[in-house]
Amino acid sequence: MAEAEIAKKSKKERLKEYLKDWTPYRFQRYYTFIAVTVFSLIIPWIKINGAHFFLLNFDNKQIHMFFTKFDMQELYMMPFLLIFGFLGVFFLTTLAGRIWCGWLCPQTIFRIIYRDLLETKLLGIRRSIQNKQPEPKGQFGKKSVAFIIWSILSFIAAANFVWFFVPPEDFFQYIQNPSEHGVMMGTIITLALFLIYDVVKLKEDFCIYVCPYARVQSVMYDEETIQTIYNTHRGGHIYDHDQQTKLANTQKELLATDDSSECTYCDACVRVCPTHIDIKAGTQLECINCLECADACTEVMGALGKESLITWTSYSAVEEERKPKFLRFRTIAYGVALVLSLLGLFWMGSTKEYMLLNINRTTQLYKIKDEGQRVTNAYTFLFQNTENEDHKYYFEIVGHDDIKIERPAKAFKLRAGTKSKKVVVLSTTQVLSKDTKKDTPIPITIKAYAIEDKVKITVQRNTTFVYPRYDILQEHQK
Ligand code: SF4
Ligand code: SF4
Question: Which residues line ligand 2 (CB under 6 A)?
């Protein structure tokens, strides 16, 4: 549109026209916050086949992941889970900088609820969400109301966190006897008190001084990492390279150094910043990638019929005036490693055993009985029913018709989630070896199963049946 034509329209009209298809990042983030909050509140309540989406249950020594239960003994999955978690953080940070901080982190969500929703929109303690700089003075009554509402929400958030360790079905029983569940109650109270202090007093200082992710994320950046960036080529150089020295303090001074500088020096981007920084000085540790400054500048520049000077892009993209590159060696490498670790996780998950069995031999190698006609070996089998239902268990010896089960003579019942030790005696009346120099260990495979579902609830374990020296056996037969 010609400059003269733009100038004829009112600021509001120009803004409306220019931004007709624009959804501020702020709203996009609010939708994401609602989705994250609803997900966190609802997911602990959802169970499929008795298993939660994620639960680290110390009471029952179980981990639930993706609606599958794992016993603590099945912790072989953990390395894959940790690798997946770390790679996920590396991948996300290299690709999109601190997207976690601005879009998903509970700290950011809590601060938006407290500062923008409670203090500004509901109670009017702050004048506008467009200006987060001045700390409101006085208004003790309204501040107390905000504090009380936030305290209640903190206890709900703390309880929600605990539901990933104590499932809601147990939580609401335990909470009726708080004295018997001191650890759970202590965790909720400590966490809630911390959330109150953090959100009301510490504020964004948590992101700047406490959060370790803020410290390490910059080493994962490269020139193509997406960040909140002020375009100095269009806006003009307001700060020197060291980000400390201000080169221009007014628009006039800015235009004096370069008359093509587009920044209006309105400082809307500074007023809206929750961490109180000026993005025009370049990337800073304090920037949580909330993009509020990009929204502010979009409105200011939009009224002039121009694009925002602050965008979510990469440094290389700004320098070369192009779109950011998402596919590059680092992101592809992290992406591949992420997929591999996910496949590893699924593979480990698919080899999950629905019962557990440990086999230990007793100290006595064998017994010779019936005047050398029968040899027995004794074992201790530790069975564990890791399922939610009671089952009857038994076992067989695979591929060895010459070895029989003497004890236990029949299947036995194990209640859901319980263990049982069984003394097992195997015997043979056949000649399995004629070695007269040493005992012969014969490898055998035990297949144990639940009678109700032999296909799914089954495990195989290898052990040995020790057959005595043949000359010793013959002595017993004389
Ligand atoms: S500079 Fe401030 S407003 Fe802009 S993205 Fe960073 S934290 Fe948010
Ligand atoms: S909002 Fe845009 S125009 Fe205003 S000071 Fe910030 S960068 Fe410059």
Answer: 230, 235, 263-269, 280, 296-297, 300, 309-310
- Closest ligand by atom to 297 CA: 2
Residue 367: how many CB atoms within 10 A of its CB? 13
pTM, two decimals, is: 0.76
Q: What is the mean pLDDT of residues 183-193?
A: 96
Question: Which of 15, 25, 231, 264 for mutating ligand 2's site (highest number of atoms within 8 Å of CB)?
Answer: 264
Quote the pLDDT of residue 5.
Answer: 62
How many angstroms separate the Cα of 110 from the Cα of each of 123, 140, 185?
16, 21, 22
**Domain-wise residue ranges, the chain:** 3-13+223-329, 21-219, 355-477
Nearest to 172 by CA among 157, 40, 66, 162: 162
**Is 281 a pocket residue for ligand 1 (Cβ < 6 Å)?**
no
Q: What is the topology classification, in CATH, of domain 355-477?
A: Immunoglobulin-like (2.60.40)
Q: Pick 250 or 442 by higher pLDDT.
A: 442
**Residue 8 confidence class, pLDDT cut points 50, 70, 90:** low
